[in-house]
Amino acid sequence: MHVGDSQAPASRTVWHPMHHAQAPLPTLRDRGKVSASFPGLAMSLSFVTAVSVYTNGTVFATDTDVTFMAVTKETGPLEFAWYFGEDAPVRTTSRSIRRRLAAPGRYCVVVQASGAKGSVASEPRYIWAQARVVPSRLVSTSSALVNTTVAFQCRINFGTDVAFLWDFGDGTTGLGNSSASHIYSREGELTVQVLAFNHVSSASLQKQLFVVRTPCQPPPVTSLGPRKVQVWRSEPVTLGVAFEAAILCDISRGLSYTWSLRNSAGLGVALPPAVSTHRQTLAIPGYFLEPGNYTALAKVGRGPTMPRAQAASHFPPAPSKRSVPGTADTQPRLRFFKSTVRLGAGKGT
């Protein structure tokens, strides 16, 4: 490179390609090699002031448009050639350009400004593109024994450069990989959570785990009635729980049942004091509920540490005053676990 003065017979300019060493981003893994050499990219510092690349960050999501700006004190008209890694240069007369970096990885961005006085190239600006985290599910057994290793796996559908923060539900937390293991020293019902995250997104998954001293599996449940039932407001409704296979737990002390009811807004509905919510069946008296949508939830377990099964039942409103198969003027005996009950406003309401 030659910087001329007034006594030089003619201005000489040396052109040469740009080569720059890569600088990794802390805490991020390098995903793929991106060349920092741009053949044919030349610069002259004889006439044009320096130019640099500006962005409002260094890490972006692959579904986001990134705005790049060429910053220079040169006021005259300029043409800009943008180099994004190994891609062909993009030429524009605007000092900014929007580009979506669809492929995850690291990009070396250089801009060359050219004008009547000459050309100059910027120093490379390194940025990273990451795919957002889309979780799938948290995989583990539903129950585990005390002082036995429990394996967990966090599965994701999408995401790059993902880190995982585990919370095993007993006060133990820590960073790890998509797979983790833990040993529990006490019985109880615990909630295991994992946060999967990178620089552009995060998502969490959780799973209930029952830690017991003797082997135990959740009681399998089944529906013994139609999934959708329509009744009038004046009619009582009985919901029940049934089991389709043997319960693989010590139930010598019996099973526990817990029912709850919510309206269409998701708010809890208090049942009358005379209605027991801790039996195998739930009897809802006539005229108690107003017409509308309701959801009943039943949980089955054995004491505080037995794995429980649960499911929801829905109560949509009746469209008209007509009888529906499976219901009668007398109290129907509907023995099922998963069901939908339609509550109408007919019959003397």
UniProtKB/TrEMBL annotation:
Signal peptide: none annotated. GO terms for biological process: calcium ion transport. This is Polycystic kidney disease protein 1-like 1. It is found in: Cell membrane; Cell projection, Cilium. The lineage of its organism: Eukaryota, Metazoa, Chordata, Craniata, Vertebrata. SMART domains: PKD (SM00089). Pfam families: PKD. GO terms for cellular component: cilium; plasma membrane. It comes from Pteropus alecto (Black flying fox). PANTHER family: POLYCYSTIC KIDNEY DISEASE PROTEIN 1-LIKE 1, POLYCYSTIN-1. Residues 1-22, 306-329 are annotated as: Disordered.
